[in-house]
């Protein structure tokens, strides 16, 4: 399972494994879990390909990167 961190203020998306120690599993007042709020949100995906496809279609103009902490061990 993956989480895509969509950050509206910085226009960036970062892909994480669900168990990454850098993510919050609770939403905030400005960032939601499985939905977007004012500053963005954390959206769950079952595959990396699904997350990238969503990024390609929904977040034009945003940068994209893999998390430097958890995704470096992703060999797929």
Termini separation: 13 Å
Secondary-structure content class: alpha/beta
Quick one: overall form?
A: globular
Total count of helical runs of at least 4 residues: 1
Major sheet description: 5 strands, mixed
Low-confidence stretches: none
H/E element string? Answer: EEEEHE
Arithmetic mean of pLDDT: 90
Task: Provide the spatial order of strands within the biggest beta sheet.
Answer: 3-4-1-2-5
Report the portion of residues in β strands: 25-35%
What is the radius of gyration? 11 Å
Q: What is the number of E strands?
A: 5
Estimate percent helicity.
10-25%
Q: What is the domain total for the residues?
A: 1
Structure characterization notes:
By secondary structure, the protein is an alpha/beta fold. It has one domain (2-66). Helices cover 14% and strands 33% of the residues. It is built from one helix and five strands; from the N terminus they run E-E-E-E-H-E. A hairpin with a 4-residue loop joins strand 1 (2-7) and strand 2 (12-17). The radius of gyration is 11 Å and the shape is globular.
């Amino acid at each position: 399972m993956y989480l895509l961190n969509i950050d509206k203020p910085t226009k960036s998306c970062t892909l994480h494994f669900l168990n990454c120690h850098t993510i919050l599993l609770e939403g905030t007042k400005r960032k939601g879990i499985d939905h977007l709020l004012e500053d963005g949100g954390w959206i769950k995906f079952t595959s990396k390909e699904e997350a990238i496809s969503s990024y390609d279609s929904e977040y034009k103009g945003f940068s994209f990167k893999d998390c430097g902490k958890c995704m470096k061990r992703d060999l797929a």
